[in-house]
Amino acid sequence: MAVQVKSAATKETFLDYRTRLIEQGAADSMLLICHSPSFNVASAGDPSATILTGSRLARLAIDCGLTQWILDRAR
Length: 75
Description:
43% helix, elongated, 3 strands
């Protein structure tokens, strides 16, 4: 799995990243973590890609017990 972390991303950014991974044979699946995507992630149309954003990303951080770690780094 390949992972890309972005504070913001367009659909073109996502497609470029996916294309480069496919061309390089780097991974059979990808994870894009993006705070502020400027596209509807449901329209990405790639079953091998997982896109984590906003509330879903926050929920995972909370569920994994990262709340205090995040707060410590925000100070």
